[in-house]
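User: Quick sanity check before I run a bigger batch. Here is a single chain. Can you write out its predicted 3D structure?
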Amino acid sequence: MAKRSIGHGFERSKSLISAGLTLGLVTCAAPAGAQEKTVGGHVGVAIPLVTLADPVTSISDQFTVLTPIGIGFKTSQHVIVDFETVVATQVDPGGETGLVVDPGVIYDWGGVATGLRVAFQIGSRGNIGLIPLVNVGLVDLGGAKWFVEGAFPVFYVDDDVSLTLVAHTGVGF
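Assistant: Done. Predicted structure follows.
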């Protein structure tokens, strides 16, 4: 079976997702002057546990350490627009270090936050991903908070779709 080109469709999908994300950000933003805007950030470490693709892989097949680093802008009482980059280092077996750029919108429900990111694996074949996440703050560190997070990246690359389960911990400030 011949592979089909995704060039035009892929570009269209990127445009639609970008437009949707922009619309979401605009509708979630607080009116000007309604409240003080705050800026925060986060750093952490994350480990992909299992990837559902062809073939299925687990942490025993490929141990990769992810280092998420982000800056967030609180646009309302509950909404954060977060700009994250993730350095991905293949440890065992060794391999290349990659970069993922994944901006998103996070909603803080109070104690638990959920979000959705749009992701691009830099230096890889044409790809796009969506990353739903659930984040729980564990310990208040006085100006920062230790958190744990489950992230579920879904990527589309060369007509293939994968879902990865990722465990993430870090400090948000």
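The helical segments are 7-28.

User: Great, the batch can go ahead then.
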